[in-house]
Design brief:
The protein is mostly helical. The protein folds into 2 domains: about 40 residues; about 220 residues, MetI-like (MetI-like fold), CATH 1.10.3720.10. The protein contains 14 helices and no strands. α3 runs parallel beside α8. It starts with a helix and ends in an 8-residue tail after the last helix.
């Protein structure tokens, strides 16, 4: 009888421990996901000033879009799509760089260090260094004057160049993670496969796209899908560079300003709901395209 009671106590303690640990995760999910998203959905239909329920926030959203060139939202959307496309291109650039590093080109260790360095250093520190490189009197300005013979503009304080400069920074700092992922996938390719391709007369370009790419297609497809999922969240370090000025603001930064700085929760919630609806077909389309990639290769 005592053994039965002891065993029952152990089972009860085990269940209490397990459900106690699960309750923390469940509570976190209910409060910070279910409640937050439900509240965001509801306040999108509520006027922040009058408290009345309706579609006033959505009317403001569409009225701003109809302003055309003067639309703040369209400017933010344009910049966001630029960073989204850059993110997609970064996947292809990372794949090409990873292939040549995989082939151990001369100075491949140096190039690997240069591309992975942004993952090691603080973004704030990298931003400060990059600002100095392209500021007046910096190496970038000196190079500009040497090539064009004209006085270099203040790149980050000129609407013509500010977004381009940040895009270059995003490309450089965005290569490291994918480079590591693709390099790891390529290093798992059996050497016998590569040697067989060489015996068949395959050149480097054919090897990269017809041998290596199909083999690591599942890895490539996963990184592409992750890039597509965040299409409307794509952004650069706008706050660190320009604070949204000089035509560099994106949807992410605009949401930050409206919610954190201006405390305009209702309009931001309506805007976010519209973006969520628009992102569904984009993600489904990208997922369909990525599923067309071969995924039945084992090695």
């Amino acid at each position: 009888m005592k053994k039965v009671n002891l065993k029952r106590r152990r089972v009860i303690k085990k269940h209490v421990f397990v459900y106690g640990m699960l309750s923390v995760a469940i509570l976190h999910f209910v409060v910070f996901y279910v409640y937050v998203n439900l509240d965001s959905f509801l306040i999108a239909f509520q006027d922040q000033h009058t408290g009345e329920w309706g579609l006033s926030n959505f009317k403001l959203f569409f009225n701003d879009i109809l302003r055309g060139k003067d639309s703040e939202i369209l400017l933010n959307l344009r910049n966001t799509m630029i960073y989204f496309i850059v993110g997609i291109l970064n996947n292809f650039i990372s794949f090409i760089l990873a292939y040549y590093l995989y082939k151990k080109i001369p100075l491949h260790s140096v190039f690997r260090f240069v591309f992975v360095l942004p993952m090691i250093l603080s973004t704030v520190a990298l931003t400060a260094v990059y600002k100095n490189l392209i500021s007046a009197g910096g190496p970038g300005a000196v190079l500009w004057e040497a090539v064009t013979g004209e006085v270099a503009p203040n790149f980050l304080y000129d609407a013509r160049y500010a977004t381009i400069c940040i895009v270059v920074f995003v490309i450089w700092t965005g290569l490291g993670m994918n480079l590591i992922i693709y390099s790891g996938a390529m290093n798992r390719i059996p050497e016998s496969v590569i040697e067989s391709a060489r015996l068949d007369g395959v050149n480097s370009f054919q090897e990269m796209w017809k041998i290596v790419m199909p083999i690591i297609a599942p890895t490539f497809g996963t990184t592409m899908l992750l890039s597509c999922i965040g299409c409307f969240g794509a952004s650069g370090p706008i706050l660190l560079f320009t604070g949204g000025m000089y035509g560099t603001s994106t949807i992410s930064y605009w949401m930050y300003e409206y919610v954190i700085v201006n405390q305009q929760f209702n309009y931001a919630a309506a805007f976010g709901l519209c973006l969520s609806i628009c992102s569904v077909p984009i993600v489904l389309l990208c997922n369909w395209l990525i599923n067309r990639l071969p995924d039945d290769i084992s090695y």
